[in-house]
Structures
1.
Amino acid sequence: MSAAEPKPVSMFDVARRAGVSHQTVSRVVNDAPMVAAATRAKVKAAIADLGYRPNRSARTLAGGTVRSVTVFTFDTSLYGTAETLRGIEDAASAAGFTVLVSVLDPEQTYTEGDILGRLSHDGAPAIVIAHDETTHRARRILRKAQPGAVVATGDDMLLAEPDADDWLVPLDDRLVAKRATKYLLSMGHRTVHYLAMPGKARRQDGWSEALVEAGIEPHEVVRSGWTIGSAAAAAAGLVADPEVTAIMCGNDDLAFGVLHAAHHAGRSIPGDLSVIGCDDSPMAAYHVPGLTTVDLDFRGVGRSAFELLRQRLEGGPKPRPAWRSPELIVRETSGPPRQRGPHPL
Amino acid sequence: MSAAEPKPVSMFDVARRAGVSHQTVSRVVNDAPMVAAATRAKVKAAIADLGYRPNRSARTLAGGTVRSVTVFTFDTSLYGTAETLRGIEDAASAAGFTVLVSVLDPEQTYTEGDILGRLSHDGAPAIVIAHDETTHRARRILRKAQPGAVVATGDDMLLAEPDADDWLVPLDDRLVAKRATKYLLSMGHRTVHYLAMPGKARRQDGWSEALVEAGIEPHEVVRSGWTIGSAAAAAAGLVADPEVTAIMCGNDDLAFGVLHAAHHAGRSIPGDLSVIGCDDSPMAAYHVPGLTTVDLDFRGVGRSAFELLRQRLEGGPKPRPAWRSPELIVRETSGPPRQRGPHPL
DNA sequence: ATGAAAGCGCTAACAC
DNA sequence: GTGTTAGCGCTTTCAT
């Protein structure tokens, strides 16, 4: 039943087989110069014959270049984080890096040791997808311990942190929310309500800024959890109120929850109520009615975060940001408010 | 700008500080017996003072117990894989294991070396979330190379493989699809069409079995990609055909695509057309109309996969499967076919 | 262009 | 109980 696992082949085995020293093998493996073409060929043949693969632990321990990234994130099943992770993975595997994922529980409080202990070793490169309190804390701990090997993605507020340019791939959450709110206002809504997800305070800032600039006093924010269900529950009061004609939501999932609640409250979309999401998740286009939202290129952000990290690690020119800028996508859940009162004309 | 990264503290530093040998520190760190309480306390104090954290690479290299798992999967943004991954992560981090994620591109063909080279070292424990050709191939390669350290999740067809009991956490895709199809048949549909996603042949098997047992000749399967959009496109012909009264879909996302296409084709749900999904993703309950689907406990499967791996690694009693069995969840997209023909009464 | 020696931080095996 | 000695597989530095 339990097959014997053959002893793995090491650099020395290859060396013996090729009739050279293990050091020469190392040179070949690492594409170092100063190896005769003939020797190189012999070694490569031996590597192929034996099926040799370098041991990453040994390489890391010996102080070789680290080719792995640890990604700290708080929920791999949310659209935004999943896509960011995908972007990181794409870029990382193209560059021959291994990706380690370390999931942080928002409910838990981690000590410095907890966070740093998740790295394979001190100084291991890391990317933090920072979107809530716990991940922000992890970002601070990691940046403090090893500033040269940590980059993060997060909202534009982080731009205020020291040297943010060097380590941040920012998403302008404030601007995104502001633009969406302004659009709703431009359709003629008297005000826009905001359904907030945990963290992500900047989206709320953008929303209230847009209102204030238009001379409107923002209503109190309604708070939701991360799930569609919690959004549906949180929005129950909002959708029941005929005075509410426009709701902007922290993300698409929350918007779907609101839409569900609105439907069950008998409100017609967008006649009675405009709803706008954020993220442009795949469902947004295929929901009926189509969800108006803002396209956010999380995958591009992930790729950029990796490139930035690599530049920090290996030097070289600062990579230029390579993600699409956010774009409002108007579909069918938004429109002008229906005329009310006794004189529709 | 670039702060000096302090030299990491090693076991020897702790040993010196505590006035013991590095070996004693190792014993304390690994909770080995044979350490005097007083010594243990001294060492723990030194560890805390110095902020010492063990180096995983060194530990792995020195042959200590490996506390990491590499998860091979093909798309972390799909609901099923994302949830399975979450389950693995939950169980793994509770057990003090690090999770590494290795994403395989379905479009690519990997050599044995490519796959094995993604492990941190030969023999490193791995879990394969096997749901398509590429991941199945990875599973075979890994199982062959190191049978003692690889488990997989996948459909029940794998039960036919040698020793499957020892390494497989099966999801009975055949039964799930069969049950859903039977339910549709029981509502009075003359036949049920199937919209397939790539791979996952067993769901198709279950569907056709149910039909054959009912004496119905299955129609040709319609094939879709993984995205909602591809499902909507693939289902265009199906939803345009008034003879089609029931469609079972490979998963919920495909079902949403079908629903979208059906809506645009002007068909009413479930009057003209019943649609059933698979997975019970969070959206299913909040879609309007609510999607009839089958609840699959991917998170439980992930947890079980990890527990099984751990048992393989460390011995001990075989863990009993700890995931909810699939359950049909009837919501609003399914019902009896509307009476047709000239004499409704 | 190649080899030899040293050591990364840790655990295992054996001493005391 | 605790310390000592050897490596694990690799990359460095320094010879040659």
2.
Amino acid sequence: MSSTKTPILAASNFIRQIIERDIEQGTYATRRWAGSPGDAAYQAAGLPDPAKIRTRFPPEPNGYLHIGHAKSICLNFGLARDYDGVCHMRFDDTNPEKEEQEYVDSITDAVQWLGFGWEAFGTSHLYYASNYFDFMYRAAEALIQSGHAYVDQQTAEEMRANRGTLTEAGKDSPWRNRPAEESLALFREMRDGKHADGSLILRAKIDMAAPNINLRDPAIYRIKRATHHNTGDKWCIYPMYTFAHPIEDALEQITHSICTLEFEDQRPFYDWLLERLVEAALLAQPLPKQYEFARLNLTYVVLSKRKLIELVENHHVSGWDDPRLPTLAGARRRGYTAEGFRLFAERIGVSKADSWIEYTILEDCMREVLNISAERRIAVLDPIKLVINNYPENQSEDCFAPNHPLKPELGKRVVPLTRELWIEREDFEETPPKGYFRLTPGGLVRLRYGYVVKCTGFETDADGKITVVHCEYLPDTKSGTPGSDSIKVKGNIHWVSVNHAYAAEVRLYDRLFKEAHPGAGDSNYLDDINPNSVKTIIAQLELSLKEAHAEDRFQFERHGYFVADRKDSVAGRPVFNRTVTLRDAWQK
RNA sequence: UGGGGAGUCGCCAAGUUGGUUAAGGCACUGGGUUUUGAUCCCAGCAUCCGAAGGUUCGAGUCCUUCCUCCCCAGCCA
């Protein structure tokens, strides 16, 4: 009947095909691994690498991870898992001005929360680009000595001007052909702090007329006096991403270096650099290869770092973990599950085509996972009182509600029925629209897990707003008793005993943006913010919910999936966040 | 109007070297089950693969031309 639908089966994609081909052809079979990252000589002394492939997830610790990163994480770690390889957790921390320890902590948390780890073949594979600064420096000197790099002293403005344009070739720097010894001496002075920030820069010497702008002598090492979160003040020069990343991959014996499309133009430099370092005997073949895939675009969401920061700093949301934010920290508070994200990642696939995934796909994945895993509970979110006039006062009767309709082994729990109950305001209509089959004057409806009742009247306040609904119950119709369904009713509404309820704070979240493409065209994405993205209410919950622990997830029957907020819940007084509603085929 | 990529059903996405009727998922539409208008089950859903030509017995898969979209001119990653 149910649960066999969720198994996550990996679909074919171009990256898997490349990996399968490489494994079949033994492309990386000769690699050796000495137990940790290192240069050619070090690795050569190692054993054949037990990992069939090595991938890596290389975030810069300068922000929080979001749903887009989840795609990359699932891809890289998932590939390693599926092909007997390992995925390195690597912080690409080459720019000390932007990076902080706080971010590395939140990132490792998020990756582990998603269900992945970096312990494999007996060791941890948590690495930092900054741990390779010594090697990078060595590689830079080797490049200078082989005539493949030089120290330029043009200003940033001059460099930009001489880079040319998309259609015009650039001009050689006047310092381009200075002797290698001179560049070497200058580079060492840069390292030794003898020059001001920005006054000198190390550039690769390739071709100022290259049609690919990234090959027009790209900057590879800059002077930047900043305290690094990891290396402190040891260095005042830092490598650029362009230079550092290929080296990081090579030192770690990465086989498949998977990144997003915008790095495609960078690949020729990636290969050029590594080949030069092989010539310098610093690295050995086979070299890692870079492959690019399309980053995730999700409707009704913004994923750009700049916009996320703006939303947080300008208090459009409560913080980086606001449940409305697409950050992993936010999604977690919202109640989204790691398994749901993994399902999502497989479901959307991997390709090179720019695409926009409909947000409902993500929600569906969460529903699919939660439907199987979440126990059911009863919650009245917008209460009005229902009085059963023919039911004795001071009487209480046990009704039995299954904890999970798909898993009878989880048993049932007792919910007490009394004369006065809370029911959902929308479950009563004085003048029902066509097709409405809940409570109406004179109509019958079943109190879920209890009796069938007949509406006998209702009360309103001065504004005509319904305050109390009256009914009478039919004694022989109690759920679970013989003949209880002799009277068929289509409507089935939930309820909570007034005397046995837990009045709790519940946050009803909706999407943060009301437009599928926030800020599309000339509009400002901030103007597309949904003013009703959260509604905080006091709901009447069945008493058992009072004991819920932070991050416990439930399906509130007929409403949706909710989670006890991991931040604001207190023992004995949990607060709930709505993760996602149930599907609703009833259009009102 | 330089370079690099991408265009297969509303949204994703398979489609190995050209070979019967173009996978699958989501959405949608019918029908069934159901004490959640949920779930689940069944059925339907591209004569067509950005366009136009061409090669071939045969093309989404090869060739030509064209169109559209994305990325690149940080001492960011």
3.
Amino acid sequence: MERVRVGLKDVARLAGVSVKTVSNVVNGYVHVTPATRTRVEAAIKELDYRPNLSARNLRQGRTGIIALAVPELDIPYFAELARLVVARAEERGLTVLIDQTGASKEREQLVAEGFRAHLIDGLILSPLALTPEDLAARMDNTPMVLLGERVYEGPADHVVVDNVAAARKATLHLAALGRRRIAAIGAQDDAAAESSRLRLAGYRQALREAGLPADDRLVVPVRDYHRADGAHAMARLLDSGQTPDAVFCFNDLLALGALRTLLERGHSVPGEVALVGFDDIEDGRYATPTLTTISPDKQAIAGLAVDLLADRMAKRVVQGSRVEAREIRVPYRLVIRESTSG
Amino acid sequence: MERVRVGLKDVARLAGVSVKTVSNVVNGYVHVTPATRTRVEAAIKELDYRPNLSARNLRQGRTGIIALAVPELDIPYFAELARLVVARAEERGLTVLIDQTGASKEREQLVAEGFRAHLIDGLILSPLALTPEDLAARMDNTPMVLLGERVYEGPADHVVVDNVAAARKATLHLAALGRRRIAAIGAQDDAAAESSRLRLAGYRQALREAGLPADDRLVVPVRDYHRADGAHAMARLLDSGQTPDAVFCFNDLLALGALRTLLERGHSVPGEVALVGFDDIEDGRYATPTLTTISPDKQAIAGLAVDLLADRMAKRVVQGSRVEAREIRVPYRLVIRESTSG
DNA sequence: ATGAAAGCGCTAACAG
DNA sequence: CTGTTAGCGCTTTCAT
């Protein structure tokens, strides 16, 4: 038994009205007699009619779909963000489609250049490999909101956390504990690695303020921001003989990896080495010791990203794309847990 | 400066050919003179033409979009699955849109009943709250693939792991270590909680085989499968005076929560209490001690789900929806780590 | 308050 | 190998 394709026309016929009237009912217009409305609604239910979105989209020139482009969905920070973005979008009647860039410059560029043109109305992008120049040179004019530090002056909104200030705060916390040899894990050579650069700056600034010497042997570069990178970085640091008494890791995954290496080798945390991360992912709250970390307001990040994007999408319809780029700073907190206070 | 809406017609005019020819080029048809092709391609680049997907979809009756419905994106198991599904779908030219059901029956039903009708061509659903009856009563006939144990005989494919056998294997592993008081964390009252029911069955079967008494005080129910639930369940177990010498947790998050509680209270793992989880999420590989777990082949789950779905979508076009429901069993392994072998 | 008809951009017959 | 044309299902003037 094959379900029949049912359209507005069929509903109209059954209800004995015109297509326009059915459309009005479906779209909740006001000027419809209650009687007519009831009749139409009955017909809709009877036929199990569902509007064809493709047709509606074609007609209206929009789809109600936005894309969220993140490096990878199973990086907890982005998974948490994605959950919040999807939830907020839903509240606003928007559907979210996910693009995974793998932090590859090519994929990020593809996404930014709108390879989903005509399918999405807007884009939330977490650029990792794209340089400010790349972004400034963007041709596509689909509304876009960028997540992460501001790196670009084009007509795109940014939702940012003050990475320098947050990294400084994390490092000062370690210094205040009396730690003198504070290492940093998470430096990246890559020119595009904005947040790495900024967190490093905050770390160095804090050392200066605390009157501690900046020892480059305590700054460990990583390839990626995964647990494995943190574990390897920590191992390299220990192997080099540069045992620190504290480590600021540029994200929680690095910190969890580093923690693993430390415990594996019999170092006590925070006894011998104190540890701070960045992101406040749930893992850190259940690690042993629990992880001190910088906690950005993810709810705000996701909510604002969707709101800004929706606003820009609306504006675009009315007045082209001539809207000032806005930058919104989101609050963060230092959450002190056992890895610095056990 | 407003970008002009450019369509096939414009490209055709510029290239001096008909729309059909442009369409042929765009869709990579064979019968096009190289010369013509080049000319058309030049025009496309010149105008920065992008096909309007809504129009194409409307015409073809499909969208190339599939939905992945999971309880929540930041549950690591589902995040890992989502990453793999999105990646595999992309390989097949499909776009994935995410629905978060929050394991709510209402939301799951909405998704299964096709509230995205005409927007998606197919659906991959991980049902948590839906009962077999709910699913059997499904009206919508969008192709669907179910993830998890088979609970339903309708025309939907299933990608499953043998929960009973896997749980049995995990429990037998603990018994083989000489543990006698093996607890289980993760029972659920909910009638819809298939995998909980099955894992519990496997656990009990293993106890019987190992000649161990089944003590219901060692079976701890939970509300959800999050870290917090595991932590609380373990606390309740310890508080009840029923200290076990091993615990089989029905997923890794429960195990990580339980681990936290054990360490917090000074119990050694695996010394006093050995621990096994289920899912093999990355967290478990970096916990201290690292977590022994059942590792389902997630790559296979995601890949097969997409493949089965794509196959069913193709078949539907050809021959309606008359295809046997298929059930595919995916392999799993017991991965022994420190939490049972330290 | 409702109806009639045009057309969004594309693909697929059907011609040639 | 390429051109012409008819809709896909919907919203939206413009009438009534």
4.
Amino acid sequence: MSQLDAVIRQSRRVKRGEYLFRAGDPFRALFAVRTGFFKNCVSSHDGREQVTGFHMSGDLMGLDGISSNTHGCDAQALEDSDVCELPFARLELLGRDIPSLQRHFFRLMSREIVRDQSVMLLLGNMKAEERLAAFLLNLSQRLSARGFAANDFVLRMSREEIGSFLGLKLETVSRTLSKFQANGWISVDHKHIRLLQPEHLKQLVSGCAGGFADDHSAHA
Amino acid sequence: MSQLDAVIRQSRRVKRGEYLFRAGDPFRALFAVRTGFFKNCVSSHDGREQVTGFHMSGDLMGLDGISSNTHGCDAQALEDSDVCELPFARLELLGRDIPSLQRHFFRLMSREIVRDQSVMLLLGNMKAEERLAAFLLNLSQRLSARGFAANDFVLRMSREEIGSFLGLKLETVSRTLSKFQANGWISVDHKHIRLLQPEHLKQLVSGCAGGFADDHSAHA
DNA sequence: GATTGTTTTTGATACGAATCAACCGCCCCT
DNA sequence: AGGGGCGGTTGATTCGTATCAAAAACAATC
């Protein structure tokens, strides 16, 4: 695994609001988030945006660019961030010599496909409350997997971005958060969220979360 | 590419209604559709089903199984079909020796991720009419890419399966098809669809189809 | 520290799709 | 020929979320 260091060209800094890459940019490298927080976004011709995912430390971005040598989505930093650039050509070469790397790589791509399927299930079958509960639990789990508090965290994204990801309008996100708070399940202080009764959230998604609440995000 | 024949263990027949694999089955191989038609399906604990895709000749299925050595979705034949089984272990080995194969493989997985992103855009942003128009156009394009008529085809799936894929109920699918027919844009005779004025359908999705109408399906 | 713009909350209303329900056409069946 | 089941269409109604609107909280700027 130390050979992996060889492909890391450099650590690149991206300030809040800046784009690491944009849809249509030539694809040369994958990016692993070292610190910070990103959103990925596809947009239609008429300007409608769909957030396809949020990415934090350890997550890999850019896999969708391999197919066409062109990035298929935007990657925008939601806070000052730090990423590793992994030139894909070098990665491909190394994969041939290091079976375990090739294998790891296939798994990463497959995991992304599985994650996308969970999101489809969410968007296709779940109601607003279920979506938001699944979202909060997913975030909680990913944060705790990285050593942060599971039940006390700060949202890096706006209500509108959450809504875009979940297929809801920002007002609905706001209302639903308020409702959860009124129920005593969470506390909402602007972007500061506390899960007071996560078991109630789990109950909401129990049955309908096809694994999305689990951490299927891509680790580098 | 003739070396590829080496990994094709056998051609396997799957009758209409039968499952090629089911979620939870141990993952050993990918499957390329030779003839026939399949749906892929993830389901939640409480029985809700989400069709994640439809696959026809040349498409590859099972990529989501790599990550966990377990298939993540069902693959059910919607008509009598014929698939090639591609043992994954052998494919991995060959990939090391044949760079073009490895490269091709990465592209295939990436293409699946891009396709999934288009579906997210569809499920998250589009209205019933737009979804159905995008679906018909996508089907049309994939069929014509395989040498079939683009504007005259037979649906292999039920209204319910279309609805599941598009995040709609079967009644809505039926109503929307009827509306398209009333407009003179298509003709509907049970499962036999004719696109009479595809330009009107394109107009409906123009602006909001983030590439889904194009053929981003996985070719073997 | 006032000002401007952005994000969030909350309310009233409208609209789209789900739901509930009835009916039809078709295939299979014995 | 007469059931029975399945898939599909269509209608009436309900429900959930979007939309429109206004105000409050906050952040950025000078």
